[in-house]
């Protein structure tokens, strides 16, 4: 069992419509070189996950994500400083994040937001960094990718106070139906990770059912949050195909309908070239 826990799940059958993994961390999955990236995205594409957004949470990973997005046309990047690293986020760091975020292969500013679960950065430092990233997203006219852990009220309050960008994505949405309704009413997009497949995530199931087409995405947050029934094993972008199928079952919709919605919403939010092949 110990060996099995360290192994990747099997690559699932190909989805009837290709989708985008809206949030992954290819470097944390173990990718270092261009060949590593291609191998991971090839596995994903076999499952119908034809494009991925690899996300940074510090400057080193931001530099790597932008470079990786130049190695393979199926890979795009998002860059920001993670809220748990907001302490000491000074002018030099801001300048480099802004430079990297302006790159043409960067499709979002993120992940940024608030994390009150971990005690790595003071809340005031997180909030200051969050406000700065909101402003950056507006100045660059790119979507804002939110990290929200145990901080729902403050995240929504700051977004309202700062006049949120046109496109806001709640990465790995973790709220219940009430939180989902507030986000949907505000025009935000909810990105569902493998957590939506967990049997005990009843509030998240309700949130997934009420979210209208055009306001939800699917992500892996790989190498974390591997979907059921492989919870606890390493994750990769191909795992999004498991989540798409589970989301379709939750919503009582056909898999191809959910996959089509995920793909078209990702293309619109991230401004990706349209891909109509299955």
Automatic annotation (TrEMBL):
Gene3D superfamilies: Metal-dependent hydrolases (3.20.20.140). Keywords: Hydrolase, Metal-binding. A divalent metal cation 1 binds at residues 23, 25, 111, 221. It holds the Pfam family TatD_DNase. InterPro entries: DNase_TatD-rel_CS, Metal_Hydrolase, TatD-like, TatD/YcfH-like. GO terms for cellular component: cytosol. The keyword Metal-binding applies. One of its GO terms (molecular function) is metal ion binding. SUPFAM superfamilies: Metallo-dependent hydrolases. This is DNAase. It comes from Amycolatopsis vastitatis.
